[in-house]
# Entry
Amino acid sequence: MNSLTPIISTITAAFLASFVEVVEAFTIVLAVGVTRSWRPALIGAALALAVLAALVLVFGPLLSLVPITLLQFVVGVLLILFGMRWLRKAILRSLGVIALHDEEAAFSKETSLLQQQANDRRADYLAGVAAFKAVLLEGVEVVFIVIAVGAAHSQTFYASVGALAAFLLVAVIGLVVHRPLSRIPENALKFAVGLMLTSFGIFWTGEGLGADWPGADLALLAIFAVVTLFSFAIIRWFRSPAPSSPGKPA
# Structure
């Protein structure tokens, strides 16, 4: 169980995080393909994937030159910051402070923009650039997650498997339904990813500082439970009505 826990956690974290980012990138690629043509959409997406693959191939091996404790500490801190950003947005969306991300709206916006460029001689080029930018920008976060989640325990391969599985699943579903994947509970996924990345970050920061976690890798599950309970407590606290002041009507 101990040996499988980090592997399963790594694959799951990489899969969920990558799934969210791939859905957002696919929405733009789909808009380009449907509105303009699939040729610039696929060329732009393929070029972006090539750049992302190069980043993994270049920076992945370089991390092996960094002392493991320093790597765990740095990656842990970055994952805490990254995970807390996702958690903050997910909590604010669940409270209605900021609007939920709407893939249908994003699809309509990108489609409208591409239609305005239809008479431009550079229309195919601009469409390809739109697909390239979408895949590259969302993909950079995926690359960071794959490298960060996998590097601390030399599990980049398993993190890559999770990311690749997310990419293939979104591509298959999207190409079959030919619509933005708007029914996917994206905020819930981002909330789960934020919890996982924050938990990984706390665990690896502790290891980088020389902490001896009780239960070794199983401590990760306990950390995840604590972070989850704390996050739900924050949501419940903000949703609770404020107590009335003495002498004032409720």
Summary: The CA atoms of residues 223 and 229 lie 10 Å apart. The mean pLDDT is 77. The two ends are 53 Å apart (CA to CA).
